[in-house]
Design brief:
20% strand, elongated, 7-stranded mixed beta sheet, Rossmann fold, 538 residues, 37% helix, alpha/beta
């Protein structure tokens, strides 16, 4: 059964809280939630930064669930949810150098809590920082703003539907305190599974360098199945989100249990049994995350394999190497006589000056050296949504050239670039996690493969720098058009070449997991003439 977060599911009104007026927003107030556990256990405090434009009371149910789960584990947890200026924390914390207003709001909320009985201890041990969505980004920035090599302002960080830096001293690997990244499968925005894969890869790096136990306890990256971005702030429907597939009460409870389990692993006062149970829960969640995101990482590895440096110091594109076999169009027996080594080029200017070539071997085989490159979507200051390549550019030999060198005839001539796009989708479907594939096939918009678009005058620099893979979302599908440059054997400039820009299998997976599940706009429908020539694949 599918659920949309609705006003009837709001749990916030059921809970009492201590609130104090604050001028940041006309109808927002600092929220202070007293612990639900025994007062005899050490006090901990969680500062919860609300998401963009979300009234902070919509986080009270989530905070209460965290407190309740923590109390079961003998953690005496206070929570404050500050009111922030214009309900946009980013205004009050634009960078680590300009974050005093948000810090002031958090401290004001803590002062209110002190008036209600909270006893402030050692911040680097007792004070935890959390945030949802934009609030998670602001929490990450706030942490950095008040950190120093000799002192840490908080015991750790919890980001929900959010993330830390992609690189540098405050990426997941290098973050100086424990960090829980708690995201969801049906997030329709920036914290979608494809984006979360950045930090999942870093989690795997930590597993390799410091061990599975360390990575699980200190830097877990978790994607909760069937939840959406809105589930963190019940009663506020986040625009562009996907429908959740669990009811809100279940979602809220699961979020609470997950955060509490992470906290248990950080507490010196937790018993061995409590820590074992917490580790078991997180381990199960991490295992599910692995089966969801491993396909995406494998798909990304097809774009570029940096370790394959036989031709280029910058690696190779396995996808381009396979695409060369495809466009050659040889029979199975002749294809077995083709070896392809791709040379990858990070800079498109280097791609411009790379041209496919071949060596005829003494045993009747041919060694082809193709040229690969990827382009990516903008990601300014970690604001990009899609981490997959926007296109995979491959410079290859034409079928005629390969047949000439093998002294044979191609089984299939003039293989279009669109065949490579179909292959990318088939790879994505073969790799996809069961939940991804089942949901996509039952609910998702499919693919429309359009005819290749020829580069004007077969001018190489135009193909490299101007012509791009065209992805156009419509009510029926995502249409895909590849730019192609093709030269005959008797052409004067680089004869026997076949250049294609392809859809990345990782980009196909991102579409399957997220945007294909959203309703398309009627105004985006393919024209009747275009639709007649397009092949639609679900």
């Amino acid at each position: 059964m599918r659920y949309q977060t609705a006003a009837s599911l709001v749990l916030v009104a059921c809970f009492s809280s201590v609130v104090v007026p604050f001028a940041a927003a006309a109808d927002d107030e600092h929220i202070v939630l007293k612990p639900q556990g025994s007062s005899s256990t050490p006090q901990k405090m969680l500062v919860f930064i609300p998401g963009g434009k979300v009234p902070n009371q919509h986080y009270e149910a989530t905070a209460r669930a965290i407190q309740a789960a923590a109390a079961e584990k003998q953690i005496n947890l206070w929570v404050v949810i500050p009111a922030v200026f214009q309900r946009l924390c980013i205004i009050s914390c634009t960078s680590p150098k300009i974050c005093a207003p948000l810090h002031g709001a958090a401290e004001a909320a803590l002062t209110v809590a002190q008036g209600q009985g909270w006893a402030r201890g050692t911040d680097s041990e007792d004070l935890w920082l959390a945030g949802h969505s934009l609030g998670g980004v602001c929490a990450n920035t706030l942490f950095q703003a008040y950190s120093s090599p000799s002192a840490l302002p908080y015991a750790g960080l919890i980001v929900m539907g959010s993330y830390v830096d992609e690189t540098g001293d405050h990426d997941l690997v290098n973050f100086p305190t424990p960090v829980l990244t708690l995201n969801v499968e049906l997030d329709g925005g920036l914290a979608r599974p494809g984006k979360t894969s950045v930090w999942w890869r870093q989690h795997l790096e930590l597993m390799s360098s410091k061990g599975e136990g360390y990575a699980l306890a200190n830097k877990p990256v978790i994607v909760l199945p069937e939840l959406n971005h809105t589930n963190f702030c019940p009663g506020f429907d986040v625009p562009g989100d996907l429908p959740a597939e669990v009811d809100q009460a279940t979602a809220t409870g699961l979020i609470g249990q997950s955060v509490a389990a992470f906290l248990v692993l950080q507490m010196n006062t937790s018993s061995t049994a409590e820590k074992a149970a917490a580790a078991a829960l997180l381990s199960e969640q991490v295992a599910w995350t692995k089966q969801l995101l491993t396909p995406y990482l494998k798909a990304q590895d097809l774009e570029r394999m940096p370790s394959d440096t036989k031709i280029s110091a910058e690696g190779a594109s396995p996808f381009c190497a396979h695409a060369q076999h495809m466009v050659a169009g040889m029979s199975d027996s002749d294809d077995a006589r083709i070896e392809v080594q791709d040379g990858f080029h990070v800079d498109s200017q280097n791609l411009e000056h790379c041209h496919p070539n071949w060596t005829s071997l003494n045993d009747g085989r041919i060694l082809i050296r193709s040229c690969g490159h990827t382009d990516y979507y903008p990601d300014i200051s970690n604001t990009g949504t899609i981490t997959a390549a926007s296109e995979i550019a491959c410079k290859m030999l034409s079928s005629d050239r390969v047949a000439e060198q093998l002294k044979t005839v191609a089984a299939v001539t003039n293989v279009p670039c669109s065949e490579g796009n179909r292959y990318a989708v088939s790879v994505a479907e073969q790799l996809a996690a069961p939940s991804t594939l089942e949901r996509f096939r039952s609910q998702g918009r499919g693919w429309c493969f359009l005819d290749d678009a020829h580069t004007a005058g077969n001018i190489g620099p135009l193909w490299v720098f101007k012509d791009a893979l065209q992805l156009e979302e419509n009510a029926t599908c995502m249409s895909v058009t590849s730019p192609v440059l093709f030269t005959e054997l008797d052409d004067q400039i680089y004869p026997g070449s076949h250049y294609c820009k392809f859809l990345s299998p990782a980009r196909a997976l991102d579409w399957m997991m997220t945007d294909s599940l959203k309703p398309g706009k009627k105004s985006q429908k393919l024209t009747e003439a275009t639709a007649a020539t397009a092949e639609i694949l679900i």
